[in-house]
Specification:
Blueprint: H1 2-23, E1 32-39, E2 42-50, E3 55-68, E4 73-75, E5 78-95, E6 104-120, E7 126-130, E8 136-144, E9 150-161, E10 166-171, H2 179-184, E11 191-202
Antiparallel strand pairs: 1-2, 1-11, 2-3, 3-5, 4-5, 5-6, 6-7, 6-8, 7-10, 8-9, 9-11
């Protein structure tokens, strides 16, 4: 995945000069953008630099305070209340490969930070499942988010590729350890899905 990201970065840099010459003639081309995003990993503030209409670089900081999930998670016949928090920063390359469809983007990048989760079955058995290894690689596709002046919006879907969580049992009332079951549960896997809505302004 890291090799693929490097390849896209190199290709993007190679494509900048011809596209930039065209963009100087476009009065609607925005060099920069400011935006806010909403995703399962929290809200984020983003600064975008559009090197040309096809290639953009986005710098983001985000996260959310400890919050209880709106639903319980059932693992191996045990039901847990889950609380989570996150804090992170990331750098992303957005490339628009189709000249006539610049609303479509390929997105690659990496982030550093942490995601913390606590699980409680209400009977004195608790666990933590924390993602702390860095960096994390992101790849996905996006719709909208053109390099244009004025209001911009974007919707992205993708995957975070992580080393997986470090699951630790923090208390036990019955002598049973469900650490391995939690590690195998899909919601705490190494690949984390992402869906993100972005609203902002290009200038």
């Amino acid at each position: 995945m890291l090799r693929l990201t490097t390849t896209i970065l190199a290709f993007s840099l190679f494509a900048i000069q011809p596209a930039l010459a065209e963009d100087t003639k476009d009065s609607n081309f925005a060099k920069y953008s400011l935006s806010g995003s909403f995703s399962p990993f929290g809200t984020s503030l983003n600064f975008g630099y559009n090197s040309c209409s096809k290639t953009s670089y986005q710098f983001s900081v985000g996260g959310f305070p400890e919050t209880e999930a709106p639903f319980k998670v059932e693992v191996d016949d045990s039901e847990y209340t889950v609380k989570g928090s996150s804090s992170w920063a990331g750098v992303f390359v957005q490339h628009r490969p189709v000249d006539d469809s610049k609303w479509f983007r390929l997105v690659f990048g990496f982030g550093v930070g942490q995601i913390k989760n606590s699980l409680d079955d209400g009977e004195g058995n608790t666990y933590t499942a924390n993602y702390t290894e860095n960096p994390v690689i992101y790849s996905g596709i996006g719709f909208g988010g053109e390099a244009k002046k004025g209001f911009i919006w974007g919707f992205d879907i993708g995957l975070l590729s992580t080393a997986g969580p470090n699951v630790i049992q923090t208390s036990s009332m019955n002598g049973i350890d469900h650490t391995s079951d939690i590690e195998d549960f899909w919601a705490f896997g190494a690949m984390l899905p992402n869906a993100q809505l972005t609203l902002g302004y290009g200038f």
